[in-house]
């Protein structure tokens, strides 16, 4: 199948097999390795990307679903060398340990704050619930989310 889509604000045209996942297209075909293979069944959130601005689990999304859509990966979150406020907060709060889950958390929070810049703590906790981190107790991740919201 020939796909026409936008990835990180760049138009992309490529051929992909009908069974190709969006995650495999991003990582293997385009070299965008920020989105991670975690569980491959849509449970962990490590593969989260934005599909037309909405969080989407790319491991369980067929690439052809992105036809004509805008896809934003963790590589497209920063504005050139200037990090997104969520990325800045993760760094300042040391919210990453191994970092494997971090792209999914960041992408998910960017979407949340675009939609609801003044999200209360309960809303933020709910949004964070769609991502799994096996290294932390989520304290620093929540701290970073609150800091990003308030900055």
Structural commentary:
- The protein has 151 residues and is α+β, with helices and mostly antiparallel strands.
- It has 2 domains: 2-76, Beta-grasp domain (Ubiquitin-like (UB roll), Roll); 85-150, Orthogonal Bundle (DNA polymerase, domain 1), CATH 1.10.150.
- Helix content is 33%, strand content 15%.
- The chain has 5 helices and 5 strands; from the N terminus they run ββαβββαααα.
- It has helices at residues 22-29, 85-92, 102-115, 121-128, 139-150, and strands at residues 2-7, 10-15, 48-51, 54-57, 70-72.
- The chain has a 5-stranded mixed β-sheet with strand order 2-1-5-3-4, with helices on one face.
- Strand 1 and strand 2 form a beta hairpin.
- The mean pLDDT is 96.
First and last CA, distance: 43 Å
Q: What CATH first level of the largest domain would be assigned?
A: Alpha Beta
Largest sheet: 5 strands, mixed
Helical content, roughly?
A: 25-40%
Low-pLDDT segments: none
Q: How many beta-strand segments?
A: 5
Radius of gyration: 15 Å
Order of helices and strands: EEHEEEHHHH
Remind me, CATH topology of the largest domain? Ubiquitin-like (UB roll)
Average of per-residue pLDDT values? 96
Strand numbers in spatial order across the main sheet: 2-1-5-3-4
Treating each run of at least 4 consecutive H or I residues as one helix, how many helices? 5
At the fourth level of CATH, the homologous superfamily of the largest domain is: Beta-grasp domain
The global form is globular
Judging by the overall fold, what is the CATH architecture of the largest domain? Roll
Q: Based on helices, strands and strand pairing, what is the structural class?
A: alpha+beta
